[in-house]
Write a sequence for this structure.
């Protein structure tokens, strides 16, 4: 059973461009979570989704950030007009019941 | 005060030592407690998952929760160099599936 997959693993964007991060959950998992991790800091929750629904987006910045988890295909975290402060590791986790979460390898975003 | 506190370390121990990693929290609603291990530049890996107070053992790892003092521990017996990683505690309440992560404790096990 393949684990959680994220791509790309590394993404470089210039300021003002859009970043699109993808997450394919483990087979059979319908809960997806996105987290951001800055150097020397812990994981910060961003958004929790189930198929086609956003359950909790309390950790998501109000502007420029959006997330979706369509009926078919991976979950997408989109960051519009990226700024240097968006540089971080973005992790996706999935769960089948909503409790134990299994993480992907992360996408490291660098904004130049 | 942060909701979940961990000493960032690093904690350096010799191979074979018993390691104690600790976490305190302030939210009395937390009922579920997870421990993750994160190697450098990798995603966190779920190690242990416990509910409420008490102990849970899995191989060389034992998780201990004391809800009365809001204190969580992870013990590693016969530590190995491959245990060198950052350990994150992540409690959450029953009404939410969103864990609150501690900053993590960096562990170094030297041969």
């Amino acid at each position: 059973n393949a684990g959680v997959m994220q791509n790309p693993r590394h993404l470089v964007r210039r300021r003002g461009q859009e970043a699109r991060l993808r997450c394919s959950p483990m087979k059979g998992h319908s809960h997806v979570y996105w987290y951001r991790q800055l150097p020397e800091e812990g994981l910060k929750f961003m958004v929790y989704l189930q198929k086609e629904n956003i359950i909790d987006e309390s950790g998501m910045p109000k502007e420029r950030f959006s997330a979706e988890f369509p009926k078919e295909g991976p979950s997408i975290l989109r960051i519009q007009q990226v700024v240097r402060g968006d540089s971080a590791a973005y992790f996706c986790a999935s769960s089948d019941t909503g409790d134990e979460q299994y993480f992907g390898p992360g996408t490291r975003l660098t904004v130049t | 005060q942060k909701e979940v506190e961990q000493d960032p370390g690093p904690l350096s121990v010799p191979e074979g030592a018993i390691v104690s990693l600790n976490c305190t929290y302030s939210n009395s609603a937390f009922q579920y407690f997870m421990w993750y291990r994160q190697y450098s530049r990798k995603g966190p890996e779920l190690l242990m998952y416990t509910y409420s107070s008490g102990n849970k053992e899995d191989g060389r790892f034992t998780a201990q929760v004391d809800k009365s003092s809001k204190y969580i521990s992870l013990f590693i017996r016969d530590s190995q160099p491959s245990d060198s990683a950052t350990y994150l505690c992540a409690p959450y309440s029953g009404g939410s599936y969103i864990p609150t992560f501690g900053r993590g404790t960096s562990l170094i096990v030297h041969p």
Observations:
- The interface with chain A takes residues 4, 8, 32, 34, 36, 41-46, 49, 88, 90, 96-104 of chain B (CB under 8 Å).
- The radius of gyration of chain B is 13 Å.
- The longest strand of chain B covers residues 30-38.
